[in-house]
Amino acid sequence: MCRLMGYVSPDKTSFPAIVGDYFSDFVALSSVHCDGWGLSTVDQSGGHIVLNRKVEAAAASSTFDATVANNNADGALLHLRWATKGLSISENNTHPFMYGDYSFIHNGSIFPPDAIAPFIDPKFNALLVGETDSEHYFYLLLTEIEKLGLVAGFKSALAIIKEHGDTTSLNCMLMNRDYFLTVSEHDTARKPDWAPDDYYEIKYLPTPEGVLFASSGWNQPGWMTLDNHHAALVNRSSFEIEVIAI
């Protein structure tokens, strides 16, 4: 299980700058979600696509604070990993995953991790470097998006996963130069035993400085909840948010 955060903004900014004082509360979640952190930035211009991944807890990392503060962009994703049981803690298994101008992070599990491998285009299957269900999820999304377009593609990918895999949560964020897609799709009953009922909830906050989406578990005053079985699609040119039933 993991924690997700992403933003898109009209101007270049960073996670600490756009989130503000409560960003440290989110980072503190890495005391549990401690198996790695990753940051990707995807500028709308395409001129700044950066990926940083470390196999360590964000709060204990010697490079995390400077990396997130100095990595200015008008779009970015941040992931705090808590490794699924049986999957190794390694850089290849650490999110985000990137292909072209697409960047992807996931919270949840698909069992078995390779359940959807037969449905991934061979050209994407050849790019797999880790063993996670999340990386398979990413390449299945790209497979279906290439065939059907963004909205129909992600809906098709979710349908394939639900039919052929056993899932806890398919919550994810997918960003490219044009769109920021956040999916809230989970089984609340399959949260960790210790976790509160809203563990899988995704919340969002539109502001003049940009649009933020993030997992729950920290102080989020004024944030709205993205309902389960829904996705939010942000157009990076207009910053309009379209909420889509899955």
From TrEMBL:
User: What residues does the Glutamine amidotransferase type-2 domain cover?
Assistant: 2-246
Q: PANTHER family annotated for this entry?
A: GLUTAMINE AMIDOTRANSFERASE, GLUTAMINE AMIDOTRANSFERASE YAFJ-RELATED
The entry's keywords: Glutamine amidotransferase
Query: InterPro entries, from UniProt?
Result: EgtC-like, GATase_2_dom, Ntn_hydrolases_N
**A Pfam family that the UniProt record links to this protein:** GATase_4
This protein's name: Unannotated protein
